[in-house]
Design goal:
Oligomer: single chain
Shape: globular
Bound molecules: ligand DP6
Radius of gyration: 20 Å
Structural class: alpha+beta
Order of helices and strands: EEEEHEHHEEEHHHHEEHEE
Largest sheet: 8 strands, mixed
Length: 353
């Protein structure tokens, strides 16, 4: 795994990393009680890391202590307020691990729209963790980096690995949730690499605008839904099915379960207090179309949705061009983005500044 060895010399204190987003087949929704700040999930989740939806991030630490504060520029926009604070909080974790006071300059680019149900925080915090740790000369393996990334964004823990990935809840129920930054009880691991199964995520973008309620706030609301306990209970069986479907590359076993858990998670979201409704009319148009293509015409495709209005159509590679053609023709769909399984984070020689 490339993240074992930092590429930047300590004097340079700069590194650039590209990390893929991921799409979960069994979702992470809800954090365990007192572990809120640690992002200990209510259940294990399973995802596929994406090759073509990624974030590239350069981090430079200011070793001469000239920079008065951290600066963060994402997709050409300098961040202020809440979004900047979340990144500064993660830079604080890296500073604490290295025991240094340096401020950082962070420049990051996504190749897909941010905050719209494509997990920019997953790829973003994975890339930030790997580049930031490497530039500080921290020698952390992918498992430890997964634990560190998890504390910024749960789904980022999965983007530390390529291919098919499971993130373990790790903590036993009722177990103490106090922990050090490098506690590796709740981390992701790779199940199979990116060459295991040629699945495709055909992403139907019905709205590229930012969502109103971030997943981070939503996780705290899951426990208020009367459906939450039922979903958590069902997920134990669904995880077994998804593990078996991936092991055997059995699409007819995988599809129904991934669709079911997406609907179960949105059921929890819709019935929490306050209620979260991420869907838009275009979302439903895509869901109805997928059902009709599959049930009336036999097209093997299933849907999943994250915390946003866009719909991820999961199919095997040989159906992808047909699915793209059909979904691209729907009036509600602004843009289609397709990705297969990708590798874990990669260091790049060319920095963004
Ligand atoms: C719905 O807490 O990882 O995508 O708040 O954007 O960091 P951010 O997201 P995160 O929650 C993601 C939840 C999900 C389902 C999933 O990816 O498992």
């Amino acid at each position: 795994m490339i993240v074992e060895c930092p590429p930047a010399s300590l004097s340079e204190r700069k590194a650039t990393c590209r990390a893929g987003s991921n799409i979960a087949f069994i979702k992470y929704w809800g954090v365990a009680g007192s572990g809120e700040d640690l992002n200990i999930p209510l259940n294990n989740s399973i995802s596929m890391t994406l090759a073509d939806a990624h974030t590239t991030t350069t981090v430079a630490w200011d070793g001469c202590v000239c920079l008065p504060e951290d600066t963060v520029v994402i997709d050409g926009v300098q961040l202020e307020g809440g979004p900047a604070e979340r990144i500064v909080a993660h830079l604080d974790r890296l500073r604490a691990l290295a025991g240094v006071p340096y401020k950082a300059r962070v420049v990051s680019n996504n190749n897909f729209p941010m905050a719209s149900g494509i997990a920019s925080s997953a790829s973003g915090f994975a890339a930030l963790t790997v580049a930031g740790a490497a530039a500080l000369g921290l020698r952390l393996n992918a498992t430890r980096l997964s634990a560190v990334a998890r504390q910024a964004s749960g789904s980022a823990s999965r983007s530390l690995f390529g291919g098919f990935v499971e993130w373990e809840r790790g903590w036993g129920r009722g177990e103490s949730e106090s922990s050090s930054l490098l506690d590796t009880r709740s981390v992701a691991h790779q199940m199979y690499d990116e060459n295991h199964w040629a699945l495709r995520d055909v992403i139907a973008i019905v709205s590229a605008g930012a969502k109103r309620v971030s997943s981070s706030s939503g996780h705290r609301l899951a426990a208020t839904s009367p459906l939450n306990a039922a979903r958590t209970q069902c997920v134990r069986e669904w995880l077994k099915t998804v593990r078996r479907a991936i092991a055997e590359r059995d699409f007819s076993l995988l599809g129904p379960v991934l669709e079911l858990d997406a609907l179960a998670m949105h059921g929890v979201m819709m019935t929490s207090t306050p209620s979260l409704l991420y869907w838009q009319p275009g979302t439903l148009q895509v869901l109805q179309a997928v059902r009709s293509w599959r049930e009336d015409e036999g097209v093997p495709v299933y849907f999943t949705i994250d915390a946003g209005p866009n719909v991820h159509l999961i199919c095997e590679a040989d159906s992808a061009s047909e699915v793209e053609r059909r979904v691209g023709a729907l009036p509600a769909v602004e843009r289609v983005l397709t990705s297969g399984p990708g590798t874990g984070p990669q260091f790049l020689d060319g920095h963004l500044f």
